[in-house]
Amino acid sequence: MKGLVIGGGVAGLRAALDIANAGFDIYLVERDYSIGGRSAQITKSYPDLTNIKDVLKPLMEEVYNHERITLLTNSEVLGLEGEAGNFKVKIEKKPRYVPDGESCEKCIEVCPVEVPNEFNEGLDKRKAIFVPFSYAVPDGCVIDETNCLHFKDGSCSRCKEVCDGINFDQKAETIEIDVGSVVVATGFDPFDPNLRPELAYDKYDGVITSLELERLLDDDGPTGGKVIINGEEPKSIVFAHCIGSRDKKVDNPYCSRICCMYTAKEAYMLREKLPDANITACYIDMRAFGKGCEEFYEEVQKKQVLYRRGVAAEVYSNGGNLVLRAEDTLLSEPYESTADMIVLAVGVEPKEGSSELAENLGIKMDEYGFFVEKNMYDPVETEKEGIFLAGCCQGPKDITDSILQGGAAAAKAIGLMGRHSN
Amino acid sequence: MKEYAYFLGCITPNRYPGIEAATMKVLKNFDIETRDLNGASCCPAPGVFGSFDLNTWLLIAARNVTLADMMGLDVYVTCNGCYGSLQEADHLLKERPDLKDWVNENLKDEGLEYKGNIEVKHIVELLYDDIGIKRLKEAVVAPLDVKIGAHYGCHFLKPSAIRGHGSSERPTILDELIEATGAKSIDYKDKLMCCGAGGGVRTRDLESSLTFTKQKFESMKKVEIDATVNTCAFCHLQMDRGQVEIKEMFGKEFNMPVLFITQLIGLSMGMSTEELGLDMHSMPMTEKFIR
Amino acid sequence: MSLIEDVEESGWVLGKDTIDSIYACMQCGKCTGSCPSGRITGYRTRVLMNKLQSGDKSILEDPDIWLCTTCYTCYERCPREVKTTDVIRALRNVAAKEGYMSKAHRATAMYVIKTGHAVPINDATKKLRKKLGLSEIPPTTHKYPEALKAIQAISKKMKFDKLVGFDWNTMNLEEREEK
Question: Is domain C3-97 annotated with CATH 3.40.50.2300?
Fold first, then answer.
């Protein structure tokens, strides 16, 4: 009997490996061009500050090389029929147009198209033929057919002229697979800060999201690890907690769980890069509940990151500088803080396309769009037997908890498939 | 031809009749007839009378709406305060049967009954929805080559869930109306800030109230505009007469012409400064606004 | 009665749920940080919500509660959807009942009882109206005495006259010590 894992982030990778290592063949379906998920965009984990790449890259490679794992990237689940132990799943496999591992990169040089690079949160550009990121798996180039001129109007085939391996004739195909169990691990999207227009994210370049800052902090990122805003190193930085979390106005009344700590970590890393900068964090309540997290929070405070109680109220520009308005709720005084860079700690939202997937799989979503577990004592099972949940698709959680839930979902899937195999 | 009842309120007829004249003249040009709302009173101001006694506030506001309801005509206003009171009262009465019964019980001595068959509209809605930007542009005979700082005021947009004109953070409706006259609407820091008059603050603490206004003007001065244009008679008073008061109180002069939106549109349609009552303002019009 | 019960009673036309929304306040300070008055005056929206939650009646005599211009910025932005501005209006009703209404405010109220308008017509404006081709007297309570009577009847029925200290004999405000 075979299993299916949907989503190749840390939760899905862990689940796929655990199920495969228990002796079951596994399909891993990933909508993106590479596995790795959101974690791949992040530089270091909290509170231990390990390089995520050092952990994630081997995990991705292990999955890719595992003889029991069939990896389908650029692919989507279209439908599911049957019952636990005997599901039939329809999958659309979209072409990459370039053979895996083909990465001489001459094709990239000649490609005339430039679009915002999603992996770097739009901070730089990529071509229509590109390598998703430095340690993408599968490695090598892919063609993004929505932006490629060949697919738009047939006007260009320059990449093909320099690379024989490219095959424009590849077609999307729909396959049907038989599986006994499904682990759903589709991850999350960050909150769109434009839904809080008073923070002026769309108005000023100096207002960025925390995920953008992750890309600036990354040595492999668009600036080679230099934190640069409007061509200069910022001298004064304000972190704004709870953007799109604990906020009924944007229909996200829940706490996103990770923002307090990733902000602390980003503040720590920023301090290392900018020893003389003023760094402030505006917070409502500090939620440092994970193992080692409270201690790390104290470390960050000792690095002279000023924690100021009170949420960011609004942002305006005073000629050259950004100004953040807020109340210091411990002093009961409203204040204005001048900054070169304001980092919005955006919250966790269900992945775009979750409702279609829920419909295709026949599982439930909560009012926000996260998939619903069976109950709090069966936290990785759904009401539909044989379909399990792992990671942020079930609700906001950090990398460790996502991995934990990936392992738990795998154990459940192994148990179920074991019972059905006998 | 469309017909509306015009709820005048206090500031428009009793301090800035130019707003009344300009509004009716502009509407008439677009075939919108205005009928008197005979016997209407103060709206009464939502943040002032609503702060004294909400029962009295609701009854008087409901009475004003009911006068229009009984004429069978939608009613429009030229003041955000009036809009705040009448639109909120109408909303509450439509949402809450217990309030409607209570109001009708108390209005029956005067022979009035609220049925809720009409809508309360702001002049901006008439200009934007009934007339439309396209027709406003077509009607321009004397385009205005001026830079304007738009002042939306508060109660036209907020609370947005009740007013229903979209987000209050990035409105464009007034800017579009301003630009339809050929003028340019210039962004400035405190564009969406309150003028400082509302909530009874102007009455109770003129200095604090004018400090708001001063801050708005300082922020407008930074972007070099020719005038400020508003949608509210009360903001209009605060910003026009307020400049005289600011001069007296803080010794600061801005000399900024203040126009109500229909006065600006009137100018663009070739009406004269006098017939729009612009010569009656505390702050004199500069040459660009003299026609 | 507790403070919140008083506010609920005075604010019944806005709804009990509207008033009780204060219990959702998490003290984040979005309101005060967004408040144009708070940048100028001692008015602190968040503190007010906190004192309402704890039932601290001292806020009734705090003059700062009268420095909200009801701009609704806090109301629009509150992440817990506390109906701040509505609550403040209802709270001021309670303060007014306790006698904390300024003389200037009482005078504004007096004009409505006396003329139907908070800002009544004057001779200068009559002239301007005439010049603009408008009726000298607007078609409001100024022109229709029976309409003014209706406003006065409402004021009596709602005891608004008592609240503001309106003397029907002098048609002016009674002398009252300002609290």
Answer: no
